[in-house]
Amino acid sequence: MNHLAHALLAGSQPDVVLGSMLGDFVRGPIDPALSPQIRIGLRLHRAIDVYTDSHPTVARARARFTPPFRRYAGIILDVWFDHLLAGEFSHWSHLPLDVFSDDLVVLLERRSEELPPELNRLTRYLRARNLPLRYRERSVVGEVLSGIGQRLKRANPLTQAFDAIAPIESTLATAFESFFPALVAHSEHTLSALRELEPIPAPATLSN
User: Which residues have CB under 8 Å from 36's CB, separation 6+?
Assistant: First the structure.
């Protein structure tokens, strides 16, 4: 899953959200000096990625892509699923998408001194393009995929990703509708289990 899903599934506690957003930028063992909440967010991010990558519905969706896009199907699905999530965000969050999006970027900006340069670059990218709010716009999804493609070292077809999405768009929508509720349940269960291992004080909300 991509940034919007990871932030949403992390819940409302800022440090857990921060840890979840760090997930793409921290490799290997998790630093025990990090706060318990941030460690929980990192572990949750990893659990979400493992669950997503191994889920049969997602595997079938990846298999629907034809070469040369199949090699990059995981990337395409991550971004497209964020687009689908943005389109029905009110079903999954009590916060409007615009408020959630701005709260997320403000959190990252406020805590920038704690973050690696790569995540701070992402924060500036999100702010400049009004993301993740604009993930609901098809044209922006195309721009995001094209940008990912340009950052990859290997030549790739991501600038033409919509050519691969269009013929199977309804299939991908059905896959998301089937998969995402299961991912929410898995994330809630995982978060609860992680909190038992590292109890968290009474929470502040992301909006505070």
Answer: 198, 199, 200
Comparing CA positions, the residue from 55, 51, 23, 19 lying closest to residue 35 is: 19
CB-based contact 52:183 (threshold 8 Å): yes
Residue type, 152: L
Rounded Cα–Cα distance for residues 123 and 120 (Å): 5
CA 78-146-129 angle, 5° bins: 80
C-alpha–C-alpha distance, residues 190 and 126, integer Å? 27
pLDDT of residue 208: 46
pLDDT in tens, 62-118: 999 999 999 999 999 999 999 999 999 999 999 999 999 999 999 999 999 999 999
Global pTM reads 0.92
